[in-house]
Amino acid sequence: MMLQRSLFLLLILSSVLSSSAAPVQSRQHRAARSVPAVREIDLEGLKKLLLRDPKNAHPLLVNFWATWCEPCREEFPDLVKIDKDYRKKGLNFIAISIDDIQDIHSAVPKFLREQHATMPAYLLNVPDQEPAIKAVDSEWEGDMPATFLYDQAGNMVYKHKGLIKPAELRAEIDKLVSGNPAGGK
After folding, report:
1. What are the b/e assignments for 6-41, b being 16+ CB within 10 Å?
2. Residue 57 CB: number of other CB atoms within 10 A?
3. What's the pTM?
4. Chain segment 73-90, per-residue pLDDT in tens
5. Could you give the dihedral angle defined by the CA atoms of residues 19, 25, 31 and 34, in that order, rounded to the nearest 10 degrees?
C-alpha cells in the first residue's frame, strides 16, 4: 500500500513538473521559430529578389549589413522597428548580410535573434561582390550599411549609405504605403 502511494505521488509530481516545464519550452520554441532562417543567396538570386511582378508587388526595403559592421549593428534596432510598423501596411523588407558564408548558421542568426528581427534574411555568397553591388545600384561603392527602397513597380525611390535617419526613411515609406504606420514615428 505504501509503495502504491509512493508511486502515485511520484506520478503526480512527475506530471506537474512536466506540465510546468512545457510552457517554458513552448516559449523558447516559439522564440526560436520567430527568427527567420538565414538563406544563402547568389548574384542571380539577388537579381530575382529585386525584380518583382508589378501586379502583385509591394514596396520593398533592402538593407545590406554585416555583424562586424558597427554602424550596421547600431542602426538595426531602428530597422526592426520599421519592419514591425510597416509590414502590416504592405512593406516587404529583406536584410542581406555580407558576412562570411561560414557565419550563416552562427553569427548572423545569433545577431538577428538578439535584435528580435523577423524579416527575411539572406547571406550574400558571391566570389566577387562588385557585380552584386552594381546590380543593386551602379552608383553604390559597397559602403555599409546601405539601404534601398523600391516602389511597387521595382523603381528605386530612396537610397542611403551609412546609418539611416529613421524619420527620413519613414517619410519615404509613407509615400508608398497607405496611412501612417502603427506606433507613429
Report:
1. eeeeeeeeeeeeeeeeeeeeeeeeeeeeebbebeeb
2. 16
3. 0.77
4. 999 999 999 999 999 999
5. -80
Measured CA distances, 150 to 15, 175, 180 (Å):
54, 11, 18
**Binning pLDDT at 50, 70 and 90, where does residue 168 land?**
very high
120 closest CA partner among 30, 43, 33, 39:
39
Name the burial class of residue 152, with classes exposed (0-12), middle (13-18) and buried (19+) by CB atoms within 10 angstroms of its CB: middle
Cβ pair 108, 39 in contact under 8 A: no
Distance in angstroms (rounded) separating the CA atoms of residues 65 and 49: 16
Q: How far is CA 104 from CA 56, 133, 184, in A?
A: 30, 20, 34
Cell of 134: 552594381
Neighbours of 154 (CB within 10 A): 14
Contacts of 7 (CB under 8 A, 6+ apart): none
Spell out the alpha helix ranges (H) of 35-165.
Answer: 43-50, 70-87, 107-115, 129-136
148 Cβ partners below 8 Å, 6+ apart?
61, 62, 63, 136, 137, 156, 158, 159
Which CA distances in Å does 70 have to 74, 118, 122, 145, 155?
Answer: 6, 20, 19, 9, 29
